[in-house]
Design brief:
By secondary structure, the protein is of the alpha/beta class. Among the domains are: 3-25 and 46-175, Rossmann fold; 452-553, 2-Layer Sandwich (GMP Synthetase, Chain A, domain 3). The protein is 31% helix and 25% strand. The chain is built from 17 helices and 26 strands. Helix 1 (15-23) crosses helix 2 (48-63), helix 10 (255-265) packs across helix 11 and helix 11 (274-287) crosses helix 12.
Length: 555
């Protein structure tokens, strides 16, 4: 490896990859499925040297088409070696990748790209066809790169970019910790997707916090079923095994393929949404599968039901854990808790209306609970901090707390609170919850989903978790029905597939609700065939859509 192949700029997130390639050049960095997956031989292998050298070539090659420091680049490539190499190549070039969930839908994708105003577009042929047909970035995109296939629309191929880069010895630009590193769009599950601006220091802090919180060791083998989380693997020196699945439909992943992959590679770490873990857990329990190599499962996007945890843990070794970090695209991780603490204590409180414990804040994050407000709060001295045990709005300040949204000044104004001249701002999570006397954070739902009636404010998660204890209930969602003085809470209920008589279940739910103060005012129960959920995790419930439905059926 030549000296020029090593990114010496430690501020750049790509320097983690350079270090991995220097320390373990021939170790596998990525395995990518090829065709039908049967065993380990069905995967193509790429080393850290392969990934680092290719990303450096891409960084240098992009310079020949005017893509360099500060250039915003829309990236639409399927999970695989090219996605990793291009992303780290963009980091090394000082460019700013724009990353959007592929399953977000054409209309929302167009709005995201309109917000981000990309100056370059790198994608597979299908993405370019959509770009041309739908007019994505027509006014701003000046350079295009096609990954594989034909390119009748012109531009440059990735193959040509790599070839040019390998023949260049241009130095890569220096990066400041406060330079823009990427624009990551939120899932839009609770409103319009927004482009979160990440600085290089945010990414570096995330790597440190994730590694230290979960004690991740170099050489571990990861199965990341969420593509964006996979991009942390090279920085953590974990080998990535790309799963054979549709990343836009994690809950529909084939559990048999996942099991075969975990066994073939002796996977030690896995990231999976609650929806995917539900699918996998049912398969594991039904078929008495054992996965002794898997010692750590990380799940985010929504709470993991206790029964799902128990099913998955039943297949793992006694010292294995499921961890549920709490956070958001704007700030991650904020807090974390393990299955041993949930199943060993907090689940009992959750079942009686305490909300969901998401654990202790991850140091050095500062988590505060402030009085709920739907208005902007410009300065920290204007907030009212609530004492332990009081439900309010969750606010976090730390090294991964992002500064704002790209092109959305009003959304930034509502989400951020400034601390004078300090560069670390506080982020309003959009969630409600409380800190207990031990300093643990409890989640009580989205602020926008609270149901206010003449008598009180009802928070979604504490109520739902009480009713979710019914063995024939898969999940529930609290919404408001009626208006004015007639406004009241209603519980939408999605049943397990083998559930019995609905009217009997309703009576049993009423009996459960009568036991606890938080649920006593819930008297309307509505059976729903299948909740709408978010694209990213297949776990966040589309409550706005459910609310419209509930108001129609109760008129």
């Amino acid at each position: 490896m030549s000296r020029l192949d090593v990114q010496t700029d430690s501020a750049n997130i790509a320097s983690f990859l350079d270090a991995a390639a220097h320390e373990r050049p021939d170790d596998p960095a990525i395995f990518v499925p090829q065709g039908k997956v049967k065993d380990k031989a069905s995967f193509a292998e790429y080393s850290y040297r392969d990934l680092n050298d290719t990303s450096t070539a891409i960084a240098r090659g992009l310079k020949t088409i005017g893509v360099g420091q500060g250039t915003r680049v829309a990236l639409m490539v399927r999970p695989g070696f090219e996605l990793f190499a291009i992303t780290f190549g963009l980091f090394k070039a000082g460019a700013v990748p724009v990353l959007i969930d592929p399953g977000i839908g054409a209309r929302r994708m167009g709005r995201c790209l309109q917000d981000a105003r990309p100056e370059a577009f790198i994608g597979i042929p299908l993405a370019h066809v959509a770009r041309i047909t739908l007019g994505w970035g027509r006014k701003t995109i000046k350079s295009t790169v096609t990954v594989g296939g034909f390119r009748m629309w012109g531009g440059t191929s990735l193959k040509a970019i790599i070839s040019r880069g390998r023949g260049s010895e241009d130095e890569l630009p220096a990066t400041d910790p406060d330079d823009d590193a990427a624009i990551l769009f939120t899932s839009g599950s609770t409103g319009a997707p927004k482009g979160v601006v990440y600085l290089h220091r945010h990414f570096r802090a995330q790597v440190d916090l994730i590694r230290d919180t979960y004690q991740i060791q170099p050489g571990e083998i990861d199965l990341p079923t969420f593509p964006l989380f996979a991009l942390f693997d090279p920085a953590l020196q974990m080998t990535t095994v790309i799963p054979k699945m549709d990343p836009t439909r994690p809950a529909a992943a084939d559990p048999r393929v996942l099991v075969d992959t975990i066994k073939a590679f002796e996977i030690t770490n896995m990231f999976g949404s609650p929806g995917l873990l539900n699918t996998l857990g049912r398969h594991l329990a039904t078929n008495s599968v054992e996965l002794p190599s898997l010692k750590r499962v990380i799940s985010a996007g929504a709470a993991v039901p206790d029964v799902v945890m128990e099913r998955v843990l039943g297949a793992l070794s006694d010292d294995a854990r499921i961890y549920t970090p709490y956070g958001a695209t704007e700030c991650l991780p904020v807090a974390s808790i393990g299955s041993h603490e949930i199943l060993g204590g907090t689940q009992a409180q959750t079942a009686t209306g305490a909300g969901v414990c998401v654990g202790y804040p991850v140091a050095p994050n500062e988590v505060s609970i402030i009085e709920i407000s739907d208005e902007p709060i410009p300065q920290w001295h204007q907030v009212k901090v609530l004492p332990a045990g009081h439900i309010g709005e969750i606010v976090v300040r730390g090294p991964t707390t992002t500064q704002g949204y790209f092109g959305r000044s009003e959304a930034t104004r509502h989400a951020k609170i400034v601390h004078g001249e300090d560069p670390w701002v506080s982020h309003r999570m959009g969630d409600v919850g409380y800190l207990d006397e031990r300093g643990r954070l409890w989640f009580c739902g989205r602020k926008a989903h609270r149901v206010e009636t003449d008598s009180r404010t009802h928070f979604t998660v504490p109520i739902e978790m009480v009713f979710n204890t019914h063995p024939q209930v898969f999940r529930t969602a609290l919404v408001a029905v009626g208006a004015g003085s007639l406004r009241r809470p209603a519980l939408c209920v999605e049943l397990e597939k083998d559930a019995g008589d609905w009217q009997k279940i309703v009576e049993e739910l009423r009996t459960i609700g009568a036991r606890y103060p938080v649920t006593q005012e819930v008297e309307v129960f509505l059976k729903h065939g299948g909740f709408p959920v978010d694209i990213r995790h297949n776990a966040k419930i589309g409550r706005e859509e459910l609310s419209v439905w509930a108001n129609k059926v109760t008129r």
